[in-house]
Amino acid sequence: MSDRAIRSVAILGGGIVGLSAAIAFARSLPQLVVTVVETPPDPAALADRLPGTTTSIHRFHAAIGLDEAALLRTGAAVPRLGLRFETWPDARWYHVHGEHGEPAGAIAFHQLWARARRAGHAEAWHLYAVAGALAEAGRFVHPQPGTPLAAFDYALRLHPERYRELLAALADQHRVTRTSGSFGGVERREDGSIAALLLADGRRVEADLYIDSSGPAAPLALDAGFDDWRATLPFDRVTLGTAPASAADPSDTIVGGAQGWQFVAPLPGQTILGRIHADAWEESVAIRPGRRRTLWVRNVLAIGDAAVGLDPLHWPNLHLAHSAIARAIELLPGRDCHPVETGEYNRRSAAEADRMRDFQALHYLRLGLPIEVPESLARILRQFERRGRFAYEDEDSLLEEIWLSALLGLGVLPKAIDPRAEAVPAGAAAAGMVAMRAALAQLPPRLPDYATYLKRSGVPT
């Protein structure tokens, strides 16, 4: 066997993504020598700068041994129930996580809801979820197993600077070498792979595997072409800012419009604001919607914004980076970086990124923007608009419930329902929904408001 094990990893970029990769590799593979080159931060590296995460953040934190209670106590993060969409496309609605309604045997709840909604007998989709009821009322508790408060999930809202500080401390505990410097170039082998990473002051960093997490410029990544998504995702500028602390809110606010959209993410001590648009402002950051066609080439792996360019809608940036890190560890090849393993990594990563593109494009399509609709998204819409059937695909890191919340929240209603659902009389289904809403409405008054819950959890103001 000539497939010798990888013994060292060098990571370019010391932001949230680079440190996340360093900790995950060091913790999963203790024999590795892991070095992070902390270059000056790239303002266009959105995964390092944005406050939003998805519910998958909990799995990643469990994998690297990062305790949520510590995040709360330091003010590095607070829980987030979901997204409150305003004027997207018209009425307010919430995108939240967890169970919505209850199935009738093998019949999915959304089939019965869609029939009732068309008849004017059902309220907004999110109101049939525990998280939706809590979000509407501005209340929060952590899920409580064995109770009605077990059937929901939540994400985190990060304070990027404080979060990075915690990751740096955790990296030090795992004996990750962190070195500061400016990128100076690379030495390449005859086959095009990297022999050494060079710093501007003349230092050399040698490793078996090089990870580029420095941002969209990706100076390490080997050129393998780029799939440009600007015809599908119309906004390519992001303007970020901060404002004084605002009222504590368990949901982020998303306000849409034909010229772009804005978000408001309140944190202890400050509020992070963002505008996503297509007009060039002096202080805005340019993004290039799309992905590299090949993300792992020879001994170079691009992750985060170095791999995929997406705007912040639904906070995909850090989610995709964490997924890439976990997949790289799962499929880690030998020192030869054999194409059997790197090819599988590239296939799965590309499919995941394309599915996230489709998810964002769904929102822009429903906003009435003239976008190019990928065939993969068109297939989802054809199936769902016909009879409410969701076409799940491999490597989709978004749960079906996340797609359903978006489809139904955005007003995509099936023309007919699954024939099996006709077995449930419309009147009985409508009565059951009324009872369900009444039960959910009893939960929020028993719970603390969001600000009180944060205070009880030790979150600094």
UniProtKB/TrEMBL annotation:
Cleavable signal peptide: none
Database matches in SUPFAM superfamilies: FAD/NAD(P)-binding domain
Matching InterPro entries: FAD/NAD-bd_sf, Flavin-dep_Halogenase_NPB, Flavin_halogenase
Domain of life of the organism encoding this protein: Bacteria
UniProt-listed PANTHER family: FAD-BINDING PROTEIN, FLAVIN-DEPENDENT TRYPTOPHAN HALOGENASE
Protein name per the record: Tryptophan 7-halogenase
